[in-house]
Structure formats: C-alpha cells, structure tokens
Design goal:
Layout (H helix, E strand, L loop, with lengths): L5 E4 L6 H4 L4 E3 L18 E5 L5 E7 L5 E7 L8 H18 L4 E6 L8 E6 L2 E6 L2 H4 L2 H11 L4 E6 L3 H4 L5 E6 L5 E6 L2 E6 L13 H7 L7 E5 L7 H6 L4 E6 L2 H13 L6 E5 L2 H10 L4 E6 L11 H17 L1 E11 L6 H14 L2 E9 L18 E9 L1
Parallel strand pairs: 1-3, 8-9, 13-14, 13-16, 14-15, 16-17
Antiparallel strand pairs: 2-5, 3-4, 4-5, 6-7, 7-8, 9-10, 11-12, 17-19, 18-19
Helix pairs in contact: 2-4, 9-10, 10-11
Length: 399
C-alpha cells in the first residue's frame, strides 16, 4: 500500500454496491472509529478498504458531502494525473466517434464514463467543462492538458456554476480555460442548425441528451400543428418545422431564449411557420386553451420538477398538471411527447401520473414509445441516477 494515501475503511457489508461497480460512498457507510473522515481534506485521494481489509480501489473524498467518496479506479494508488485523464478521454471519444458523424455531443458523462464529477460537452472546436466535485476541481490542470491532447480544442470554457458545487463546498464561476471562448456557437443536429449561448444558456448550453428523441419526434409532425412547451432554443419546435410541420408554437419563459428561437427558425428558413410565446408555461397553456386552440402534436419537456426526494409530492403534482394541460390542448387522436429529467421520478410512477392526467381530462392513452437519453449519455448499470431521462410518446384519444 502507498503509505502517503490515507485509508478509508467501510463498515461491515457496506462494500456490496462498490463490488458490483457503483462509484459512490456515503458518509454513514464509513467506519469512522477506524478511519475518521473528518480529518481528510476536500478532494483528497484515499484508498478504500472493506472491513475485512480488502482493497476496493482509489477514491477522492470530501468530508463536507453526503457522498463522502467517489471511486476513480478499482486499482489502488491511482492518481488523477494527465495519463489517467488521457486514457479515460480516449475511451469516451471512441464511443462518440462510433455514434456521431459530426463533433456535437456530450463527450464525457461523469460516472457513466468513469469520471465522477466531470461533464464535458463538445461543440466542434469548443468544449464546455462542468466540474461538480472537489476531487475534480483539484485536477483542473490535468483535465485541461489531457483534453488538449485528445481533442485539441481551440477554446475551452469552465462552466462551473452548477448548484451541486455548493454541496461540495465549492464556489461558482464561469471562466475561459483555453483560448477565447465565443459567446455563442452554431451546432448542427440532423441537418438543422441552432445557435447556442455558452455563457448564459441553461446547463452547459445545449441539451444533447434529447437529441435522439428530437430526431424521432420529427417522424410524428408532418403536416401537423405543433405546440412545443419549455422550448428553450427551439430544439423540438424548429426541428419539427423543418421536418414538415404545418405550424409550430414555441413557449418559453426566457426573453433571451425566445429571441434565439426566432433566430434559429429564420436560420433554417422556417420563420413563417414558427410563432414564439414568451411566458410561464402553465399560464401560456391556459391562455391557449381559453382561446380555443388545439394541436395535433404537443411536446412537453420541462426542467426537473423533482430535484431532491423532498420535492417528490409537489413535483409529481407539477408533472401531472402540465400533462393535463397538454392533453386539453390536443385534438382527438393527437400525439403527446412528454419528458421528465428527474431521476427521482421512476418510469412506473411517471406512467401513472400520465394516466391520471388522462383520466382527469376524459382521455385514454396508447403508449407508442418509451425512450431514454441519447447514447452519448450512457447509463452505468450499477448507478440508477445515470438513467434519469424519460421520454414517452403517446397517442391521446377521447374515451
């Protein structure tokens, strides 16, 4: 054993999840009498041991966090050096280049790519990096050098403003890491161009996790009237207009997003088909209902209504309400595409909420497709939280 690396010992039987591949250790799983975690520095590398003394691998620790350690390797004495990140990045790139002809995708998806606390989105020659843990924050220099070796980007942005950083005792900031990062970039998704704001956009700028679902959505919209709710930059709505929708209304609360939707529609020569409503989604949908509007296809892609377990009750009510409003706006035999990015909302519960919404509106449902996140957001089979996105396509009819 490397004597310079502190041992963190688990309680009896608390190694079961790790032995099947999970990467998280919770503070109540540590044998604090044998190995006091409070003495560790945030981000410090530790060697994980079972109670019997079996070496489980290397992790970085944070005594301030409920998830007090995250495994970086099953090997002992692993360090977060340049070689480590180059190896992981090359593995991540091999998957993405197999799947995508163009360089627009999530390049690194944290735990699912065995890089806990690290997310990287690629926009051709620009990368946006989001770090959410103290361990990865300490390795920023190594991350940047490895990224240059594997992708050789022209510019890199640290987009470290996630609320998750507060749980790790980290401050929030947005800063250039390499080169001069453009305020906006243009990406292409299956032939449709979108302008994406990197500094002020949601999350890391674009929601690559829905890319495959947005492409599938286009198969349902030909000659249809479409409503796109929580439209953000028009990924669903503008794509629908390009795919042959008769008319599209995009709803978003953000004034800047509304302007970009209009710009993206114009850039793709479908401005005459796309109308933008700026305002609260719930209120906008009620307004459309009061106006007697109906649509052939409605897409609802809200932010996470359930961010923590304590949000479950109110979040489930919000999902049910928004889908009730969507169903009231659907013409008979219409198509509803409903998504949830709350990993706390399980598939069976989501379907029950959709069914309750149908009951409230006097409708009946046929599930046509149950879809999940795009493959550049792979799922770690031992970590349920990596399988977070649900996208359900339904046929909605009168009872």
């Amino acid at each position: 054993m490397n004597q310079s690396m502190t041992v963190l010992q688990l309680k009896k039987n608390e190694d079961k999840r790790l032995r099947v591949g999970h990467l998280w250790v919770y503070s109540n799983e540590i044998d604090t009498k044998a190995t006091p975690i409070k003495s560790l520095n945030a981000g410090e590398l530790v060697e994980l041991h079972s109670q019997s003394g079996r070496v489980l691998g290397t992790a970085y620790a944070n005594p301030q966090s409920l998830i007090c350690a995250r495994v970086i390797s099953t090997r002992p004495n692993q360090v977060l050096d340049e070689d480590y990140f180059v190896q992981r990045f090359e593995s991540a790139l091999a998957l993405r280049t197999r799947l995508y002809a163009q360089p627009y995708y999530r390049f690194v998806f944290a735990e699912a790519d065995r890089l806990p606390g690290l997310v990287i989105d690629r926009y051709a020659d620009t990368c946006v990096v989001q770090i959410t843990t103290a361990g990865m924050e300490l390795a920023k220099a190594e991350i940047l050098v490895a990224l240059q070796k594997v992708l050789n980007p022209v510019s890199v942005l640290w987009r470290n403003d996630s609320s998750a950083r507060a749980q790790e005792g980290l401050s929030s900031y947005i800063d250039d890491a390499l080169g001069q990062v453009p305020e906006k970039v243009t990406i292409e998704e299956a032939g449709v161009r979108y302008t994406v704001p990197l500094f002020t956009g949601q999350k890391t700028g674009w929601f690559y996790d829905q890319a495959a679902n947005r492409l599938r959505f286009r198969d349902y919209v030909k000659d249809a009237s479409v409503l796109d709710v929580f439209a953000y930059l028009g990924g669903w709505g503008v794509g629908a207009a390009v795919a042959g929708a008769k008319s599209v209304i995009c709803v978003d609360a953000s004034a800047s997003a509304a302007q970009l939707i209009s710009g993206n529609a114009a850039d793709n020569n479908v401005a005459e088909k796309v109308e933008v409503m700026q305002g609260d989604a719930f209120e906008a949908m009620k307004q459309l209902r009061d106006q007697g509007k109906t649509f052939d296809v409605v897409n609802v892609d809200p932010p996470a209504f359930i961010k923590r377990k304590k949000d479950l009750k109110n979040g489930q009510q919000a999902y049910q309400r928004i889908n009730e409003l969507a169903m009231r706006l659907l013409a008979d035999d219409g198509i509803l595409v409903s998504s949830s990015c709350s990993h706390h909302l399980y598939d069976d519960v989501f379907l029950r909420l959709l069914n309750r919404a149908a009951e409230k509106t006097g409708r009946q449902l046929q599930i046509l497709e149950q879809r999940y996140q795009s493959p550049d957001h792979p799922v770690h089979p031992a970590i349920q939280e990596t399988r977070y996105l649900k996208c359900t396509i339904l046929r909605v009819q009168k009872r």
